[in-house]
Each structure stands twice: as structure tokens, then as C-alpha cells.
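Notes from hallway chat w/ T.B., transcribed later so I don't forget. T.B. wanted the structure written out for a chain they're using in a teaching module, and asked if we could keep both sequence and C-alpha cells in one place. Agreed to drop them here.
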Amino acid sequence: MSYFRVFLRFASFLSAVALVSACKSSKAAPAPPPPPQVRVVTVSPERVALDSEWIATLDGLVNAQIRPQVSGYLIKRNYEEGAVVSKGQVLFEIDPRPLQAVLAQAQAQLGQAEAELGKTQRDLDRDRPLAEQHAIAQSQLDNDVQANLAAQAAVRSVTATVETAQLNVGFTKVTSLISGVAAIATAQIGDLVGPSTLLTTVSQIDPIKAYFPLSEQEYLQMASRINTRGGAKAPWQGAAPLTLILADGTVYPKPGAFLAADRQIDAKTGTIRISATFPNPDRILRPGQYGRVRAETKVRDGVLLVPQRAVAELQGSFQIRVVGSDNTVSTHTVKVGERVGGRWIVEGGLQPGARVIVEGPTTKDGMVVNPQPFTPAAQDANANPAAGVEGH
């Protein structure tokens, strides 16, 4: 009887275990995790203006080297270094006393020559009627004529000497040949200077000139516009003005204009030098500065652009991730072209209407995702197409 009771208890225990197991199995299985969320852009054909950039060097529109025309000791500087000077303004003075002595000597010689001329003229006036009356020999009149001609020549010669001496005295005041900004003086008071001495340089910097190299291929694209009769003022696409980017990355606020193309292609570099001008009323720009000149060079229609961050480079190829109509991810190898702002032009491997992943977790091909629209940041937007292609 006791064995029977033990058996019943064991059977009850098995029933209870089976009941608990059945209850647990009847509970619902946990739901799978939701698809990862990604940010996508839907690409569509666009019309964009493409820019080119070149390294530019600034220089004065006119640079006048100020050199003395006479030799002497420098005794005075009359301008403020780095300031604006006017054409004809006296910048330096050279000791005039030695040249004034030369002038005085020349003036004395002129007086003697004029006195001799007067004497020969009086002799000629006296002897001419006497020779006509045969009161004196004709040879004496001939001598008087020759003496008078020689005296006239002497006066002209000494007069030229006096004028030269006067000019030299005037040249002791060294003036500016143009209006512009004067450089720091390269000669000091007390220096012995001469025609080979550079005293300073005056540059006209409003407008200022910019030089930059254009490749032969780029030149050929616009040669017909550059070489039109009278010259083109803006040979680039749509007659667009030039933009100057300064060394600190800021954009100079005033647009520039094409000035001229050099006469030849540099055989060593394969480039032609182009000059342009930029207004510079505040004298912010100075000769010797470096910058980048940007110009709109062409316009393309129907191009596809994707944010730069959506493109991954792998062993020389470029890949993007695309979300299909069934929200699955696939990797596409694409051919990229020029960069426009923060976006790449995709030349091949992508179709209009494709949804390209810009942000989100790493996903494998075939994975289902939850695509959400991507809002481009300011640096990725192409609101200003003129911010285009990176430099040459």
C-alpha cells in the first residue's frame, strides 16, 4: 500500500511539471528588433555651375622704381613710409650744392659766350658796309662772318650746358612718378646715391593686379573669347566675374575682371599667364600676396550629385550604399567626377531616383533598413553652385 502511495505522489509531481512546461510554452515568443534607421537622399538630375581655381599672385597695377637721376649725398626723406603719395610729390632730397656750383659755372660761361657773340656781331655790322664800299678787304668781312657764326654756336652750346645743369639741380629733389603707396625706403640719410640706386618703389594698387596660370587645355577652351577683337572682359562661362579667396580662406568681397593673356605658353609648365584686376579702395590687398582666383568655367545639365560623406573609397574605387524599393541595402560601385561644394558628381553606376544612404549604422547587403530623409548641413548643400570644383 505504501508503494502505491509513492507511485501516486510521483505521478502527481510529473503532472505538475508537465503543466508548468505547457504554461511556459504557451507564452508568445519575443518580437524581433526593428530595422536600423538610416538617413537617405533621393538623387535627381540637377543643373550645376562648375568652377575652377588657380593660385594667384598679386602685384601693383603699376610699380614705379624711384631712382635718382644724379649722384650725391641723400640729405632728406620727405614722405611717410607705407603711405599714399601723389604724382610729382618730392620723396627725397640730394645735396644740391655741388650741382649748383656747376650751374653757376655754366651760367658764367654763357655770359662770356654771349659777350663774345655781341662783339662779333658789332664787328660784322661795322665791316659789312665797308666791304661793300671796298674800303676793307673781303677776307676781313669773311673772317667777321665766321667769328660771328662760331660765337652763335658757342652760345647755343653753353646754353645747353646751363639747361642741363639746371635740370640736374632740379633732379636733386626726387619725385614720385605716379600716385600710389610708397614702400619703405631702401636708402638712408647720408648715403651716397646715384642713378643705379633704388630709393623706394611706389605701387598703384587700386585697382590691383592678379596673375595666375591657365593650363593650355583651359586656354584652348576660351581662346576664341580671349582673342576677340578688342579683347574679352570676361572670357569665362556666362561672362562671370572672378572671385578672390585670400590666404586665410575669406572671400574678397569685390569681384575681379579679366585683363589680359600673356603672349606665349610657358614651355616648361604648359601654362599661360593670365592677369586680372580687383578693385582695392581700402588698400586691403597688397603686392606679393597669394590667393586663389575662382571662376565659373562651365555649366552641366542632368548630373547626379550625392553628399561627399555618402561615398566610400576602397582600393581606388568608390562605393555607395543604396536602399531599394523593398528597403533592403545594396552596395554600388560608382564613378565620381568633380566635386561641387560638399557633394560629388556621380558619372556612372547610379540611376536617378535612387535612395543613397548618407548616415546610419554599418549595414550588410540584403539587410532591411528604415530609411528616413536626410537634411543636408550647410557645408553639404549646393545652394550656391559657384562654390564648386576644387582647385587646379
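Follow-up for T.B.: DSSP finds four helices and 19 strands in the chain. Might be a good example for the class.
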